[in-house]
Amino acid sequence: MTQRHASATIIDVAREAGVSKSAAARVLARSGSASPQTKRKVLEAAERLGYRPNQLAKAMKSGLTHTLGVVLPDIANPFFSAVLRGFTDAARSAGFEVLVSNTDNDPEIESSSIELLAEKRVDGIAIAPVLQEDPRAIARIADEGIPVVLLDRRLPSLAALPLVSADHADATAQAVRALIDTGHTRIALLTEATQSLEELSAIAAGPDDEHFALLRPSAQRVIGYLRALTDAELSADEHLLLRSAYSVDDAQRTVEAFLDSNVTATALHSTDAALTSGAYRALTSRDIAVPDDLAFIGFDDQDWTTLVRPTVSVIDQPRQRLGATAATTLIGAIRGQAPAAHDHLLKASLLMRDSVSSATQA
Amino acid sequence: MTQRHASATIIDVAREAGVSKSAAARVLARSGSASPQTKRKVLEAAERLGYRPNQLAKAMKSGLTHTLGVVLPDIANPFFSAVLRGFTDAARSAGFEVLVSNTDNDPEIESSSIELLAEKRVDGIAIAPVLQEDPRAIARIADEGIPVVLLDRRLPSLAALPLVSADHADATAQAVRALIDTGHTRIALLTEATQSLEELSAIAAGPDDEHFALLRPSAQRVIGYLRALTDAELSADEHLLLRSAYSVDDAQRTVEAFLDSNVTATALHSTDAALTSGAYRALTSRDIAVPDDLAFIGFDDQDWTTLVRPTVSVIDQPRQRLGATAATTLIGAIRGQAPAAHDHLLKASLLMRDSVSSATQA
DNA sequence: ATGAAAGCGCTAACAC
DNA sequence: GTGTTAGCGCTTTCAT
After folding, report:
1. Which position among A291, A347, B74, B126 has the lowest Cβ density within 10 Å, counted as fewest Cβ atoms?
2. Are A64 and A96 in contact (CB under 8 A)?
3. Per-residue pLDDT tens over the stretch A124-178
């Protein structure tokens, strides 16, 4: 059976059916008209030959590949793999395939990936951009009119592009509010943000303007923290802002140092997945009784959070929905629809579990 | 700046440079020869116009898209997302892009995905096939000469296709041997396999023949268990084979029922990721002291296994390497190289942690 | 060294 | 209703 490659073309089908190329094309693409006879002959010939339309040729004619590109830092990361899942599902149900790229947060790889996707003529691209100064590859394709949507984060020079992300400030605010509601007033926040408390406080006091919109997710989350405190008439304390790099180990060290210090807090919220793992390790290594000595709310619904005891309360981002929204936004743009909104900020939700006691405490 | 779509073509470049289409083509593809002058003029024109080669057109001519397809049950599953990561990395460094599809273990979706990938003329396809009777879509593309490699599992009717997977039998044997070495003789095995102990024992007693090769991963793992027992002159006990569906909840129920029964065991090994989570939950819910009351070895190096106390020993499959091997095998086949081996069975490794006591026990 | 022209598989006017 | 033809962007003989 092993026949050599080269599947039948529309010409082969036409010959086999004894009709012209265009007659065959019309039947196969169900466009134009054809007599029942022709239709039958063509369909049978196609069946017999195992005809399979060549989408490359179609794309050359139509200018549409029905393929979307998605550029992510690391698809092995649970957050992005869930986003990708949502993205591919939404794409598929709209008749699009998905070309994926990893960047490992390397600007070089990012731009070459984007360039390649553009050469393959994808109809649109979703990008969780590397946080860098000069994302010229992104700017270029956007300039050329290829639909682009930003995922999870925005870059200052790319303010014009639509964004799909979680509402980072609200996410953290939810966690902090929940802690305040259960009686906590000394709430530590583990963050990747590097801005000073003054700087962040100034932005938190203002509206959600451009200044705010251009902050990284980590900084926006701190803003949510500060606003929740302010709403409850609590004041922020520099010593409760624990700074860590995006790394489990660094987060663990940071939290351990905090626990070993004489700064007191009754609750801790960590603002991303890696920080949450690191913080949890620190709590374990220092034998902290959770929630009695310290209440804890993590970030992202990682599977271990319900495997450990006590189970860990978390802020859960709608990961698959983020991906799906990015895909549908892109597809809308491809179809020439005016976007319903420039940005899509999806709300995260708080999953309350045992690492926060429900009882109000002193 | 927002100019309308349609990037410059080679004709535009030729005109801008004042040379013929073919001259421009030769320079841009660095094939054939061209005078230094022509070269310079063309390159400058291309630069000025922001020329970007159209890979669709190239593919139409060459018959090669430099795109690989990969069809997986669920890319949000950590095992497959790691495999995908390895796959895309290897593909990219060989100059290939990757088109992904999820099947959700639905045969319909699988075949339509494969069909679509074939229509897009991918150069090769890696598939972790849905376990079903009649994978005709796979058989068809393989018959047509499109390079195909199977990932993680093989289907009876697809014995001719190359396979890249972990050495499942060896993986479980490693775990069981380690338990035996620390003094255990009553070792329970949590498995998805549904075959009877007799049937499996018969296969375990034989060589790694076709019969063995066509078993599902879960059954191959049981074979490894049986062989490790035999090697240590221990006999298998039906009661120690705990059967569960592929689901955390079912695994938890199964293990709880076992713990509540009067069957005794001093060690437990769970043979895939979901079963491991479920088993761990059961151990927690029944307050089993690990490793003192029961030693435990899980499957797949999930991140929670080092977050819980005691940390959980696991069998770790080389996930990214599986993906990378699939990609390189495929690319080799595309380039017409005879495969180094029909199958690639990669060894898993045992990560010894605290859920097994190092001391030999009675 | 360079240009003209054919063709990859398909679609869409346009005639008949 | 059906066939002829041009052309999407590129590569590649083949002359010149």
Report:
1. A347
2. no
3. 999 999 998 899 999 999 999 999 999 999 998 999 999 999 999 999 999 999 9
Interface of B with A in 309-348 (CB under 8 A): 309, 320
**Separation of alpha carbons A189 and A242, rounded Å:** 6
Nearest to A90 by CA among A49, A24, A17, A149: A149
Distance CA(A114)–CA(A108), nearest Å, equals 10
Instruction: Retrieve residue A249's tokens.
Output: 């180990």
CA A237 centroid distance within chain: 31
Q: Do A99 and B102 touch (CB under 8 A)?
A: no
* Structure token digits, residue A159: 């303010």
Tell me the Ramachandran region of residue B108: left when phi exceeds 0, alpha when psi lies from -120 to 50, beta otherwise.
alpha
Report how many Cβ contacts below 8 Å link chain A to chain B.
153
Q: What is the DSSP letter of A2?
A: -
The widest CA-to-CA distance across chain B, in whole angstroms, is: 89
Which residues, other chains included, contact B184 with Cβ-Cβ below 8 Å and sequence gap of 6+?
Answer: B266, B267, B295, B361
**Does the pTM of the predicted model rise above 0.90?**
yes
- CB contacts of B78 in chain A (<8 Å) are 76, 78, 81
- Alpha carbon A135 to its chain centroid, in Å, reads 18
State the DSSP string of A45-77: HHHHHT----HHHHHHHHS---EEEEEES-TTS
Q: Which of A248, A299, A291, A285 is nearest to B309 (CA)?
A: A285
| The two structure tokens encoding residue A87 | 């993205």
Angle between helices B78-93 and B319-334 (to 10 degrees): 40
State the DSSP H helix or E strand holding residue B125, giving kind and residue range, or none if neither.
Answer: strand B124-127
Pairing relation of β-strands A67-72 and B124-127?
Answer: unpaired
Task: Look at strands B148-151 and B163-166 and give their pairing.
Answer: parallel
